[in-house]
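Good day; I would like, with your permission, to put a structural problem before you. I would ask you to consider whether the tokens describe a fold that such a sequence might reasonably adopt. The full record is reproduced below for your convenience:
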Amino acid sequence: MNLHRHFHRIAWLAVALAGIVIVFGAFVRLSHAGLSCPDWPTCYGRITWPVEPGHVEQANLAFPQRAVESDKAWREQVHRHLAATLGLLVATLALLAVRTRRRGVAIVIGCGIAVGAAIALYIAKLYLPSSLLAFAAEAVLLGCAWRWRGHGMAALATATLAVIVFQAMLGMWTVTWLLKPVVVMGHLLGGLTTFSLLLWMAWRSTPGTQLLAGNASRLKRVGAVGIGLLAVQIALGGWVTANYAALACGTDFPTCLGQWWPETDFGEAFVLWRGIGVDYEGGVLDGPARAAIQLSHRLFALLVFGHLLMLALKLRRAPGLSGWGWGLAIALGLQVALGIGNVVFALPLWMATAHNAGALLLLAVMISLMARLREPSAPPAS
């Protein structure tokens, strides 16, 4: 690969920042600060957030539907600034990766200008042209990523930039659509997708990081299934959080509300679209629907636990991969303990945030294995 000599260093910096953005975003969401800035990308019309009494009074007059809570507003706006910084790092990686592609740099810069213009149009309340411009930039980036497939990091870096742009749109819809659960869950999955793509690029661009194993192909097949199961479980966890169903079973574990199978309503629990204009802060579902979500998350966790534990045991027996087996098993056990603790201890903020970080850690272990595992090269013929 003809990569810039600092590409892998920037990729690792982006991985670290993406992890911070995801965990801090979980803290924002779990501390009920997701709507603490009623506008986007500004916060009460400011680049930062209102703090001074005069600024707070002006903000309250301009946004009477939501009074300023400075202790929450800073969390939301700092999260946005961190995400914007990550976007700049991803754009830098894309520029470095496409510099050998014909008109690659011009295309990436042009799409970046289009996205910036779309944000300016949105602030000016020109919503239709803003959306059209943003989606046009998305289409160009995805089209180029497809066209550049097989050309080193060009396709992957461009696709990652497209994901970041869509993440910004999901962040906007999170606010404007008042914490709609499907958007909140999608925003979480988009952040983890961004992290996974960056981690893959970081490992694949760093020299000398291959893990050689004679059964690498079989381990990667098992690992791919594990990543798929883990993604579904994370989505269910996001759905639990978005619908405020974390304590739908009270503080009972393994039972729920004192029963093995309480009253549930799966029909209402997984309705993805309920229209626009509903304020989802605090949740809108009744107890049986929330209990159905919580039980789904618990039951699917058993399947994920069994599969990843099997993979950990396989890694323990593979020469040179024993440490990875132990690492996966420890991360898995920690995540299960945090999940149970969230229920038993009634969702302490630090533990709920750590549970999100645990999911990120599990995903990081799985993606790292998939990116690094290789079959040993066959010896040359004599």
